[in-house]
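Thread: Newbie trying to understand structure tokens

Hi all, I'm a second-year student working on a class project, and my supervisor (Dr. K.) asked me to get a predicted structure for one chain before our next meeting. I've only ever worked with sequences, so writing a 3D structure as a token string is new to me. If someone could post the tokens and maybe explain what I'm looking at, I'd be very grateful. Here's the chain:
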Amino acid sequence: MKNIAVLGSGIVGQVLADGFLKHGHSVMRATRQPSKLATWKADAGPRASVGTFADAARFGELVVLAVKGTAAEEAIDLAGPEALAGKTVIDATNPIADEPPVNGVLKFFTGPNESLLERLARRAPDARFVKAFSSVGSVWMVNPDFGGVRPTMFICGDHAGAKREVEAILDAFGWEAEDMGGQEAARAIEPLCMLWCIPGLLHNRWTHAFKLLKK
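---
Reply by user tm_fold:
Sure, no problem. This is what the structure looks like when written as tokens:
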């Protein structure tokens, strides 16, 4: 079992933190306002703790970035690139702009030939970033029930060992991992968030996930 740092005090951070606790890990959640997470810490048990971004980055053998996309680069700065060096960092963020969707389609602040993952990797070049958990809603991230069918989680990153580590986590969390290659593949993976959200934003349907069919 590992010490897991979860950077983020929102719902995605909570779901993933609870998932890691459920699977036997110790978790420190990072926040700028510890009082926001006092109730979670009290309810989560003795393997749960709360600290600053720098505290959590030092604590974590593996780090999960689960903040708003607009805050992701600042979160890496607060954690400290040196504290992330050599560690697997699961990037669950998406570059969603602070603008309303158009006909159910979210707006991104990145262009088609860049990704938020690549921006983050430039800020912490010695961290081992792996894109994951970015193409599904938080309610389905940990052990989703789709009638016995494992949905597909698309991942990418430049470090093979880090991707294998994330694949093992995804397997424990009930997912089939599909490795799409290096960091550049995040340019294709991140927009899956747009696609996933369209049925929800247009028709209030949020009970779905992606599945890659192979023959």
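A couple of things are worth pointing out once you decode it. The chain has a mean pLDDT of 97. The chain has one domain: 3-203. Feel free to ask follow-ups in this thread.
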